[in-house]
Amino acid sequence: MARLLYTFAILALMPWAVIHLIWRSRKQPEYLQHWSERFGRYAAVPPAPTFWIHAVSVGETRAAQPLVVALRERYPKHRILLTHMTPTGRATSQELLGDSVERVYLPYDTPWAMRRFLRHFRPTLGLIMETELWPNLIAACKAADIPLLLVNARLSEKSARRYARYPRLTRTALVQLTAISTISADDAERLQNLGAPVASVNGNMKFDITPPAGQRVIGQAFRTRIGERPMFLCASTREGEEALILDQWKKVGAGGTALLAIVPRHPQRFDEVARLVEARGLKLQRRSDDRPVAADTQVWLGDSMGELFAYYAAADLAFVGGSLLDFGSQNLIEPCSVGVPVLIGPSTFNFAEAAQAAITTGAARPVNSAGDLVTQALALLADPASRDVMGQQGRVFAKRHQGATARTLALIERLDLFQQRVDGREIVLGQRAGGRFEA
Fold first, then answer.
1. Which of 300, 301, 293, 366 lies closest to 332, judged by CA?
2. How, if at all, do strands 431-433 and 436-438 pair?
3. Taking Cα atoms as reference points, which of 157, 134, 175 lies closest to residue 3?
4. Annotated domain spans of the chain
């Protein structure tokens, strides 16, 4: 009954979902593309064993990268299908993984659309990144006997309270999952309190991300454009944060010789942030201009997609956005992994354990406000020795927590994935060899 009521709610919201796509397309025309996929209609694909990974948007897609690489190496004869819900997530998978995977949108969570999706792609295994509980999708996988895992799962206290409002629906979805692999013991405990079976604590796959070599090359080119000026990078900033930072940057005289670089989290906000800079009378230059950064440029706007590691590679110091206001923080592991000292605000519930560990090890420093952020940034930019120590600690911190991908792969290998039906015939996908599957 709970899932039936949920389905009625989804149907009632469907007109709003269509209007939402049209509305979002004003700033991102990509929202008007591939509409049929959002309702479970796809182009023909050849039958082949398929691993399917659902990565909603950018963060989940980046986290999935090391798992995709590991699965390709371990099971070279399998296709890998990535599903997304946002154009930025889809674009990120194209940038990170190219044509080595297939990518489509996952349909809205109606029973018939999910059944069509599963019948079309016939996945051997489904993996949901982080925490996306889609009751009809989970039920459809259960009915089709398709193993479905929740991996790299995280659940903040805020999200746990939201799921707890619908106890029967949440509990039913959780118990129908084949297995759950969480980032931390706290995440596992919160999921189990909602009715999930025992979860494996395997760590965070975001520690296993390897910066693409090409990004380092681009970062060196950025550094050449900037010259000798110290660069303070505000990465993955969210709405409301840029205005606070810019006000403080202007208040202190626009940082002296330092260059402030801002890379908004969402590309549809590039022009909005440019207007915020210009409204404060600060000299703006865009990365898309593709020119050397002028000596009198005060703010460099990173208006490009898929180059975040390059910005980190060029930075002397980084603030991780989404943490100054109550967004829960973006990924602080990436700058730590390339040895960039990190400043992070008070809102870190999406990376609570990683943020605390980074602060404890000296890889990151906390800030309480935009004023505190700019004050600490300028102090560190004038103190290269402290920055070097923080950068070294960042690399140590990131390396120490690697291994979640290997542990998740071991969990997958323990599942019974021997057979899959294709056109009514059973085909053998692999056979055990010393407790492992051979592709």
1. 366
2. antiparallel
3. 134
4. 2-203+403-438, 213-400
DSSP 301: E
* Helix (H) or strand (E) segment spanning residue 236: strand 231-237
Query: Could you give the C-alpha distances from 150 to 110, 111, 128, 191, 328, in angstroms and in order?
Result: 20, 19, 5, 11, 21
In the CATH hierarchy, which fold is given to the domain comprising 2-203+403-438?
Answer: Rossmann fold (3.40.50)
Per-residue pLDDT tens for 395-419?
999 999 999 999 999 999 887 554 4
Confidence of residue 429 (pLDDT cuts 50, 70, 90): very low
DSSP 3-state of 421: strand
Enter the tokens of residue 7. 């389905």
Q: Quote the DSSP letter at residue 239.
A: T
Q: How many CB atoms lie within 10 A of CB 115?
A: 18
- Are 2-203+403-438 and 213-400 the same fold in CATH? yes
Neighbours of 212 (CB within 10 A): 16
pLDDT in tens, 151-193: 999 998 989 999 999 999 999 999 999 999 999 999 999 999 9
Q: Which residues are catalytic?
A: 60
Query: For residue 431, what pLDDT band results from cuts at 50, 70 and 90?
Result: very low
Identify the CATH number of the domain defined by range 213-400. Answer: 3.40.50.2000
- What is the Cα 372 distance to its own chain's centre? 27
